[in-house]
# Entry
Amino acid sequence: MLPGLLALALLAGFAFFLGQSRARPEMPLRPTDGIAVLTGGPERVEMGLRLLSDGLADHLIVSGVGRSAELADLARSNNIPAAELPGAETEPPPVRGAPPGVATPAVTLGRLATSTRGNGQEIAAWARGKGIRSLRVVTAAYHMPRALLELRRNLPDVALVPHPVQVAGPRASLLLREYAKLIGAFLGLSALKTDLPQR
# Structure
């Protein structure tokens, strides 16, 4: 009987997860102290930069950026004109060619994270440094449950506002893999992998 109950619970959980994978941002959009974009899929960076330029936050972190990428590179790959870019800072190294004239950099490129758990740690360190109390989280809708789980572990006192990005028809295999990763993260298995290097 126990295996049957377990199977039923997994199926119910997957049905709930499928519903979450179709979620849309809560409207109307409300301002937050910061915006966090978790890289790894299309339209996420563009959405984060658009939200920042619309005045919905004062600070933005793009977590999981490649070590050689610059803000201008991210803009070009997301069809954002250079004139629309805010200032940028990076941890580390400094971003070359960032647009001048911004006294307080609005965008941070986080280069250390290589997993969702690492994103949570990297974003948490940034949020504490900026005094962030409310954070809009931008990632793919199917990835949002795991992203929020890892972020809540690292930022229990910060209000998280999900901003799911819909991708065109995620494959069933992708959804199944993500659901399995979500279960693993819920059970704490993501902690078995060392992600952020010691500084």
Q: What stands out?
A: The first helix runs from residue 2 to 20. Residues 92-104 have pLDDT under 50 and may be disordered.
